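for the writeup, i need someone to sanity check this before i put it in the appendix. the sequnce is what the collaborator sent (i think, or maybe the updated version? ugh). structure was predicted straight from it, no edits. if anything looks off just tell me and ill rerun, i have time this weekend
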Amino acid sequence: MTGTIAYIKKSLKELYPPSEVSSLVRLIMERVCNILPHHFLFCKDKELSESEKKRIHEIVERLKQMEPIQYILGTADFYSLLFEVNPSVLIPRPETEELVERVIIDNADKKIKILDIGTGSGCIAVTLRKHLKKASVIAADISAEALATARRNAKLNNATITFIQTDILNPEKAEADIPFILDVIVSNPPYIKEEEKKDMEKNVLDYEPHLALFVPDNNPLLYYWHIAHFGKKKLKKDGLLYFEINAACGKMVVEMLEKEGYKDIELIQDLSGKDRIIKARNETDQ
């Protein structure tokens, strides 16, 4: 086993930071060989099978092409749950865990109806359903492939979710497809401007779905505005709207929500100090 770990480190050291190489080693050995990091010392003389060595070689070759490890393994961890991921859905991010944490804290033990717009892998919807036992959760996405993945993740995590295919950019269709009055709307919509592509990592740009990532440079609030507008029609009085946002657009989103008539708007920083979450309250009676 020691030789295999050395092979992984040598193969990847020119391509990834040392801390990331260490993380990749731990993940590969755990997922392929079922060896946890704290067992490495005790298993250093363990002889790996030929099938294990072959699988590790395949993974390393794909990592050398900068393919995300989550797509290679087909799974990602999110909020202590396991999710299937594939190139039709974004890989869940730690920042999104912070968004989910905010929704859970604010709505603990409430009997509410929640809509997750742009559900992707379903990580937000499934996690909220698991932790808010009294809530009913609806998850919407334009992508049939993403919804199929989200359905599998709901089943994998034993979570009951209502899934709806719709286009939030088509207001009449979205309002007809989602005929519910809601207590909470949560969304991590596309928010990266096209001009930001040049600064992005190759493993994101080359492999993750652009439909779920990018908005036009001249309309960075495209999804936020449509979701906020939808919320004015569908949120109960005092219903809550939660967004994950582009750190560069925080004040713009706040101003847009003010114009739309939302109140008690909070711009919340993530653990790295960047503007990342917006929470707002709807004052309109339905």
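Residues 2-65 form one domain. The longest strand covers residues 235-244.
thx in advance!!
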